[in-house]
Amino acid sequence: MLSSDGLRQGEDYIPGRVSDLTSLPNLDEDVLLQELKARYAADRIYTYVGDILVAVNPFKDVPLYTKEISERYCGGLHSDHPPHIFATANDAYQGMLGKLSAPPQDQCIVISGESGAGKTESTKLLIRQLLQLCQGTSQLEQQILQVNPLLEAFGNAQTLMNDNSSRFGKYIQLFFQNGAVKGAKIREYLLEKSRLVQQTEGEQNFHVFYCMLNGLSPQNMERHHLGGGQNYSYLKNFQDKAQQYRTQHQQLLDAMDMVGFNEEEQEGMFSILAGVLHMGNIQICATDSGEAYVDRAAKDLNIVAEILGVDSTDLESSLTQSVVRTNKGELIQRNYTVQQALASRDAVSKALYGRLFGWLVNKINQLLAPTDTSIAELQQIGVLDIFGFEHFEYNSFEQLCINLANEQLQYFFNQHIFLLEQEEYQREGVSWSTITFTDNKPVLDLLLARPIGILALLDEESLFPQGTDLSLLQKLNQNVGSSAHFTTGKQARSPLFTITHYAGKVEYNVTGWLEKNRDTLPSNTMSLLQRSCNPLINTICNGSITRTGTLALQHKTSKGRRLSKRPAGRQVGEFGKKGGKQLTLGGQFKNSLTVLVERITAARPHFVRCIKPNGLKQPNNFQDDAVAAQLKYTGMMETIRIRREGYALRIPFQQFVQRYRSLGDIAHIPEDQHGCQRILKATGLSDWLIGKTKVLLKWWHTYELASRLQKVEQAATCIQTGVRGLLARRKVAHLRELANKQAAAAVMFLSHTEQLIEDAFQRQLHLAERDETAPPPVAGGMTAEMTPADAAAVQQVATKMADIHLQEDAHTQVEEKENLSSDEEIVEDDFTGPISSMNRWGKEGTKAASVRWFRETQQKAVMQDSGTFAPWFHGIITRRESERLLQEKPLGCFLIRVSESRFGYSLTYRISSRCKHFMIDQLPSGKYVVVGEPKVHASLSALVDYYRKNPLTGDLLTEPCGQVEGHEDYAELLIGNRYSLVRVEEEMQPYGSALHRDDSAPPPLPERNYTTLREPDNQQGINKHMHYQTLLNNQQQQLGVRAVPDTTAPPLPARTRRK
């Protein structure tokens, strides 16, 4: 049994065996380093520092993420199992549900570390485990899992430090209701667009280009005029990994299909990517006077114009000329130099790719948005995966923004772990020896302060048309040169300066900073793209750029109102508009950081510190110097001290008593410090303190209290089970007694009705014999001359039956009212999920709705070319019926049936000892997928063919089950089938329909039958008596009444009708 400090009771310290670094007996840098090294050598890559997780990148596959291991960390406590990133996900999930030390609260997981430390992989593992904790069975979980591979293709690239480096930041929000995931939202930060047009030696462009060039079919390659990767100036360091890229391309297509992108949208994305590659090949030449023009001999201009859906002459003009409007409204046209034209060409490429990436994120958010519920009503867990700290040989504006984000996260960590905690000790009157830490606030002020911070000065210089990169450096030196964290180059006109970050000194080169910060396109170029006949280009170029740099297609403000007369495709505060200056790239990034910090501050944070063991990306290589430097600048020693000596949990008195009242020794506990002391003493815990307004607890107290509370809840559940069982048995007995009374009343009613029919028939027969002019008898024996006594008797029993139906209807209406979903509400970014199928086909989970769904959307999906149903298709049959059909069939025999519980299908096939069942869903793109499997299929037939060749969980499909001729179980699904139409209408409209009786009315009388009996025998009388007996038995079965023994009446005399 592990103690709270990670050591087993009575054990001596052995390097590599301590799961929590706060329990190290001797705390110094060497001991800390050797402990991590020993654990790394044993593939124990995870270690705790209290409630903080340290993860060392193994640079290899380790057997730590199997399904069995994942299930161990579903529920339970932090200390039940060895350190793992799944435990961090479980802590966040349990904290969101309020099962730990605090009431239910939104959570966030902040992952930090250098580039190549494993943050992206950690993010994917966290999301996977959070979805595992939900235990959901819908396709939404698989869609969310496919978001990361999709974003990685468009936003990640190979760098010198990392083969899969995130060149953008993302904050993934998962929305929950009652513990089940309801949707997701992605927020992206600062895509490194400059990588698109230039990469340093040893680095590559975004992954998607290499996947496209190796994975597209020959027909698509020809359509987009594409060739080998070596043919494009935007692609450097092209590596021969054709098979790997083909596999990644297929995974990308599957991810697009899974998330919900249709064929047209996918084709549009690849056409823009092809256009960007061709754009980079446009050759710019100079005339004798130095004016730029496009070399049309290479034909790249015409190809780009064709792909982008614009006129080639207009495109050439926009690349080589600028149009300036004077104060008098006159247009002045100026020719570019070659350098300016090349910059214009690259700016168009970056704008197209940046807006495509923004549209991609926007579309994902739309497809994964929660349905039927406002986001404000949902709980959420956020996972922050942001670019790691970077220090290259050449560092530009992008590296400054990336390192600024890491400075902000380090400051947030320091605030949460050190500053705010120690300030609270002082307010609560706790005796405390202050732990010093490296405060990086001066560096943040250097970068963000106004009006003389680096970003503010950069924005100011960007406003001047004559400003240059060197004039920017001079301005920086004049205003912030006195800072201890800023130094300039030694040479007079050197474009270099150095900032001392929390992670060390980084030298930056200001070349190109002003142009990158402006991040604009000439107005004539943007207007040309907005008129494109390519639908996707037209859409993305008419979108608006928000104050945080994201693409907004609805053109709404943050308050939800329409932008008043805001032209599409313009940025907020763009030049040429009334109201302010242009919002620069640096300003957008600063705003996005502010919003991000506000969001994670509002939630309960969990920290994951990723460590890179070496700079060579090699497994089993632990470089002491590299790891020691990371431990030092992240403040790991100070973090261990404050987690060991401090009180991570600080709970107000009232909240503590309300949550842990059941652990006390008396029923009524006051909600003050005395009540808190009473509860803590009853639990037997130690090392806690009582402050002025709060209880101060160690981090491990959370799990001790949760364990005790869990035992109390289990005992309470056991007691409740017994009491509820007793109450349920009493209720069942009462209902049984009531049912018996109703059954007796029903039998009496039916017997009385049968007697009335017999008496009436005999009277009619007697009257017919006396008076041949009497009206003929009807099938039920009722005539217009029914006596008042007979009518009253029928009305009496009909009233009793109506009362029974009214009671059933009232119970049904109560259940339907409880199951009503809340109205949808338009939220912040106006993202709404797919249209609810409730209103389109009826209530999901009913047979009638499933029939309507199939008839309207699926009829052709299960048809063969011959016009008949596929042999593997079956109708709406139960799981047990499908198993019965396959019982005597060979192994691998299968069928696909329409599901009644949801709008989809179920695949059932036979194995040696039983049958396996899988759900099949139709994606928004119209394609099909087996739930839980990543492979997407264009049709159900393609799905069947695939799993006949590729095993599904280890088994191959062999032959279809087929149908028994004349007993097909899909008759009710056929459009035009009169019987099934009546049945569906009855289920859809149970009241007031002309196709059925009203359940609240008395049972209907049989239809009139005036058939003349021509032969004087008793056969027709016998038939009529059998008809009455059948009616009686049907009524008894509907009411659940035991049938009355059949006493055959004597044959009735034949009836005649007067000619």
Automatic annotation (TrEMBL):
UniProt-listed SUPFAM superfamilies: P-loop containing nucleoside triphosphate hydrolases (SSF52540), SH2 domain (SSF55550)
Provide the Myosin motor domain boundaries: 16-711
The protein here is known as non-specific serine/threonine protein kinase
Q: What class of enzyme is it?
A: transferase
What is this enzyme's catalytic activity, as reactions?
A: L-seryl-[protein] + ATP = O-phospho-L-seryl-[protein] + ADP + H(+); L-threonyl-[protein] + ATP = O-phospho-L-threonyl-[protein] + ADP + H(+)
Originating gene: MYO3B
Residues annotated as domain SH2: 872-961
Q: Name one Pfam family in it.
A: Myosin_head
Keyword annotations from UniProtKB, A to Z: Actin-binding, ATP-binding, Cell projection, Cytoplasm, Cytoskeleton, Kinase, Motor protein, Myosin, Nucleotide-binding, Repeat, Serine/threonine-protein kinase, SH2 domain, Transferase
Main location class: other
* Any one GO MF annotation of this record: ATP binding
Checking InterPro entries in the record gives: IQ_motif_EF-hand-BS (IPR000048), Kinesin_motor_dom_sf (IPR036961), Myosin-III_kinase_activity (IPR052409), Myosin_head_motor_dom-like (IPR001609), P-loop_NTPase (IPR027417), SH2 (IPR000980), SH2_dom_sf (IPR036860)
Q: Its family?
A: Belongs to the TRAFAC class myosin-kinesin ATPase superfamily. Myosin family.
Gene3D superfamilies, per the entry: 1.10.10.820, 1.20.5.4820, 1.20.58.530, Kinesin motor domain, Myosin VI head, motor domain, U50 subdomain, SH2 domain
GO cellular component terms listed in the entry, alphabetical order? cell projection; myosin complex
> Where is the protein found, in the record's own terms?
Cell projection; Cytoplasm, Cytoskeleton
Q: Where does ATP bind?
A: G113, E114, S115, G116, A117, G118, K119, T120
Annotated region (Disordered) at 993-1018, 1040-1059
